[in-house]
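Hi, here's the filled form for the chain we discussed.

Project: internal
Contact: R.S.
Residues: 680
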Amino acid sequence: MRYTKENLSLEEGIQKEWIITNGLGGFASSTIIGANTRKYHGLLIAPLTPPARRYLILSKVDESIEIGGTKYELYTNMGQDYISKGCKYQTSFEKEELPIFKYQVGDVEITKTICMKYGENTIGILYKIKNGEQPSKLTLAPLMNFRDFHSMSTNHEFAVRQENKNTKVKVIIDNMIQNPVYMKVSEGTYIPHQNDIFRHMFYVEEQKRGFYPEENHVVVGRFEIDLNPNEEKEISFVCSLEENIDELDINKVISNEKKRIAKIFKNAKLENLDNKTNFDEDSNTEQVKKEQLIKDLVIAADTFIAYRPSFRLHTIIAGYPWFLDWGRDSLISFEGLLLKTKRYDLAKEVLKTMMRDIKYGLVPNGYSGFDNRPLYNSVDASLLLFEQIQKYLEYTGDDEFVEKILDKLETIIENYIKGIDVDNNNIYLDTDHLIVSGTENTQNTWMDAKVDGVAVTPRNGKAVEINSMWYNSLKIMENLCKKYGKKTKAKKYAELAQMAKNSFEDKFYNGRRKCLYDVLGDSKIRPNQLFALSLTYPIIDQNSEMAQNIIKTVEKKLLNSYGLQSLAKGEQGYVPVYKGNPHDRDMIYHQGITWTWLLGIYYNSLKNMLKSAKTKTKKLELEVKLAEFKESVLATFEKEVYNRGCVGSIAEIYDSTKPHEPKGAFSQAWSVAEVLRILM
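And the returned structure, exactly as it came back:
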């Protein structure tokens, strides 16, 4: 994707963001004009205990060039009462594997490429300069910090210790951690600064989110590089938590990253899409658009894969900029991120991560960002595990692995039958063979917002998706036990499944509204009912009138181009636009906002109905509907991915009214995963 000068005004440039990651949960991110608009923007946001404890280390590097005694600022910064508009010299922004900025000042051309070293808390910037007829001087001024990426530095002063040898600088910004930061340029002169504070950087996105919008950074010094007339030169800048950066070759780092992405394409059988974009602006074919979108979403998918050194296993980051790995999100994202892209070894690792700390029959829904303590606040993560193991087996045929973990899966089932009351989950099998979970103030389904300790969308009791997953898990276990010679267990699970199905069909259908109850006793129309149709083993007969009515209700009340609304218009508490301060946003998080990942369960429902269609007419009808749906997804996100939000990625949520503004996390794993899965 490439943006030219007409897209790089201040007003338009701050609307589009970019992100790259380092495979540890760390990242670099900003806008396409380099103006930071969030407290989460920065060139080095490093996890101190990967992937957690992420700290902003390097906010940005302000570049300027002096030509014939005149200084030109290439950076763009915003304050409450000032704006520096270096973007007026920017001629383009490109983002394939890496972000590339190009500038033109008179007859001087500068190309800037930013790259993180994979597997390391290191950021590198490569400047390629074609100097003009006059001598010039490039100045690089790093704006530094050392704070938790959720907080902000509003103090007017920083306590800084530094030492430099030639162009390598060691910096300690005093705090409780006192972790040294290292910087280096390939040539030039370093000039230390004393008490130089960049004051009141203004974050417009934080103001929109109801947070204090200003912060200070420290300018510890500047690097100066002289350029002779007509000289062409490469200058590299490195900032790292690693000391051994002296011999770091940024060209090699960039080359290695491109090779790594190329390998992902090859593995996914997408090697026909070369490393440079093959999108011809004069071409308008749907196939070209689709191929380009798939390519960019595969790159986006990779950003969510992170290594947990303490586990020696990989995991899935739920979304950027603020989420860590979540069990539920990881398992919903699993097929699209890893199986569709044929990254089967990583898929096995992620499953091992999910099962590593099973306790009380529960898969952790996440880990504490402070001490890696597993958090068991979910009823659905454990049940989602069965679906994804089934998918893994279908894609890989890895019976050896699945047979080895069968005991763990049995443990989950047996605990759900016996009952689990850790962290107020209150999970148990009722006498009608349906699963009960939660309490009034427990949020253990995906609609998990709480405000002041009170559940915003209380879904305690018998939730529709939980019981759909329960039936599906029992059927998967029935078949796995048959497959691996455990016939007695297979019979037990088959009987339990049938009794659950009978009760579900008897109790969950709301004939008056022609849909399923969201929770028994709650007739609000929500998308969770689609789980009854979308899993490997649907709990409702796909050819039934009930199934037809559910689909029609969802299509009429919840479906739009960007996803499914979390609550139907007209229901009590419905809010279609996500805005306000943190309290207000949490109150409406699941009250009508559109969620992109839910397109995946709608897609699965249609596929299942097609598979079970009994007549040629019905089959043809569903084939047409599926094709039209996929065309709609392609058209929507081909436009979305390149024109709003985080370029090359998909946001967490969207407003449910036009123009469907992207909101929440600007790059969300399950949004990317489900759109990618639909298109591939």
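Let me know if anything looks off before we file it.
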